[in-house]
Structure prediction request, 928 residues.
Amino acid sequence: MILDTRYLLLRLGQAVLVLLLAFTAAFILLSLIPGDGVTARFADPALGLSDDQIAEIRAATAADDSWFGKYLTSLTGFLTGDFGYSVQTGAAVSTIIAAALPSTAVLAASGFVTALILAVAIAVAATFGPATGPTAKVRRVLDSVPSLFISIPVFWLGILLIQVFSFQLGLVSVVDPGPAEALVLPTLTVAVPLSAPIAQVLIRSITEVQASGFVKVTTAKGASELWILVHTVARNAVLPGLTIIGLVFGELVAGAVVTETVFGRNGIGLITAQAVTHRDNPILLAVVVIATFGYVIINLAVDLLYPVIDVRLRTKRSSASAGRALRSHDEPSRRALTATAASVGVDLDWDDEAKEKDS
Amino acid sequence: MTDHRLSTSARLTQRRLDRRSVLSLGLGFGALLTLSACTPHDSGSLAEGEPVRGGVLTYFEPQTWTLLYPPSVGFYPNGGIMNNISARLLWQDPKTLELHPWLATDLPETDADATTYTFTIREGVTYSDGSPLTPENVAKNFDLFGRGDEARTLPVSEQISNYERSEVLDAHRVRFHFSAPSPGFAQATSTMNAGLLADSTLDLDAEGFGPGGATQIHTCGPFHITDETIGTKLSVRAREDYDWAPPHLKHQGRAHLDGIDYLTNNEYSVRIGAVLSGQADGVRDVQAPDESRVTEQGLRLYAKATNGINNSINFRFRHDLLGDIDVRRALIAAIDRQEIVDKLFTPNYPLATGLLAKGAMGYTDQSGSWDFDPDKANRLLDQAGWSERNGQGYRVKDGTPLALTVNIALPQPRSNEVQTLIQQQLRRVGVRLSINPGDQSKQTLDALELDTVQIYHSMVARADFDNLRSNYSSVNRDVFLNGVDRADADDDSVDPKIDELLETLASEPNHEKRQEAAEAVQNYLVDQAYVLPFFEEPQVFAFRRRVHGFTTEPVGRPDFYSTWLAGEK
Prediction:
């Protein structure tokens, strides 16, 4: 068996703990903001309600309970699948989320797959071919594509795509498009910036692996560059790619907020943007928990995949510390990851064992 | 309605960008917007002809609707829907503002002091769930609107005052009783805030009236809700059996359109681009700088008056710095209203000549009350003891700088730009104006604090005298924060005269006397230099040329009942 049960349970326990901490932190932060949703909505002078009427509504919505009481209520609510009611519209948060989640999931999945394809294409094109002569120039240009992609503002890209492909060329409609038609431009918008860190890591790790001893040996034995890329380099370069995929999930969520707003797609991103405007805490709390849940699941999957991909991580001893093992064994990927993480603003904290090895 | 006042240099810039638009892909956001200027010109026929039946109109809103509970449909996206799906007891002519029968067979019988109203209900009217319109149902509607239901978080209607109870007299008549005169009630029954609901709908709570529940809202208007995609789209379709249009209208029977698709997109460039490129038929909220671009493309622009309190700033005189009438007069003299209108808006935004728009009920001409005179402003401030200046050039008295904060009225057009311009104008006379930052919720919350916001920017639309009361009374919107029972109240600073004058207006049943009472309120507010109005705020729509017969109800919400589509998209 590749994974032992104890490791699996440990990781699941960690995941639950992370969720609880995220919920608590979000709850406390949202409670700290002055003024709550009830005031924001019902104290609007446009409604012309008297102070007494507002007080009655506050009582009816339990807005004046102690923060701890409210915390317990919403925590039990979350555990039983009851996310409370939107302050802005009065609709059940679960209804709103249920309506938005599929659309975001589809966009995230298609954006993610497209980003992967883009990243692999860029990485392979930037590292394949002789390092001298005319191809070198092309490779250098391609090498800088990730930096370019990551600096494109998502909203700008979205608007640009709509203006050109919908309004100018009339290829896609923004009014009542079919399900596939509605997905094309938002997918591109999400995928382009998302592909950047993945491509960056792949380029670095492919370059490092290419420079390592065993590749030189294989080359000396007469293998073609393509054969080496497919059979030797790819397998070694894919692990750091996998790690960065787990890390960019957060970016996927952030990208969805902007993309859904620009394209008017009802998804988690759009309702987040609206909930922020209307200080709709029940919705924001649910969004935080759902986003954390997604993040935890993806990273759990990534961790569990390490030993599947890399035979060296399958020993009984090390499966509990699969990530650590990978990091200390796999110098090139580690260095590539650190470099990329720094370029996208993520601070990777390597464990002590690895640090000692480094020094 | 074309805007011919766009400056020559602005036009030249626009042309240059047009030609270069293909190259402008990398130029940035502004260039992006001009890209859509090269979409094909709309060349549909403008000939009116006979209305054609059929077609679904696609229409863009900037925000999604939030609540279809009639008293809460003042929010533009809500009102744009409710006005088309609901029918009311009375119908108000948007031009003359006169009341006519609709679901009531006649205007209501009322007693001399306007404390009872008796309506006779039209027969044969049904709701979209098949249930009939009955006096019992009408009574149930107004019991909810007039009292609200806090347990269901359904607020009372701002427009119905002093509501006591309903009484069903017989199979055709219903009577409403009020605890004090309520002369605004007849008009209130004509607004979309009194759109009648089927019995089953009246039992819903706030959740039921919110997103996700739209198809269970049953009304008796020309359209009914058939489909909802939460957050992005709401579809209404014509009711084939609709045969109870206001008798006053020429058009009777079914609506011409098959239906309307209300689409939502937050992104302005996408909304306007969709209409310019012909993907959508119409859009609400065309911004002033884009009006010329829309008309140059051949589209039709409709600027519809909202007939209410003008877009204004209200000086909260209970704050120490604004307690002195000379300071308020100085601020008014320092602000150049003409410059605001010229620089930021178009002729569709007429300079205010009173606290109310010209078409509003109770309008009083007060032009000449707010002349721009910076010398006078400086003189008044010097006299008021604000003659010293600090290092930054702002006026100081006893170590306190003359610094005030204004909110941004996010639903109002270009509020931030208006306030920025005023900031510059006030700086010239040594007054510091800060603009309160933040989203809609923050603006709402901050505006309730005298210490945070001393100058309050707002407007409100309702085609009745009661509009004044809604806006200025301390028990309604209370723009001055003038309520004695407020937590921070210092009773000396309250001006009880405002509420007194508004009370007279609200309890006066006689129309002529109401006009007098309305004038008295306005004259007092102007004499005290409490308010500075800027312009008459319109709702600006753009429609493709194939859209005919578009109108609005008295406060500028779209009315698609008589709208029809000619030809293909």
Summary: Residues 511-527 of chain B form the longest helix (17 residues). Confidence is low (pLDDT under 50) at residues 1-33 of chain B. The radius of gyration of chain B is 25 Å. The CA atoms of residues 81 and 262 of chain B lie 8 Å apart.
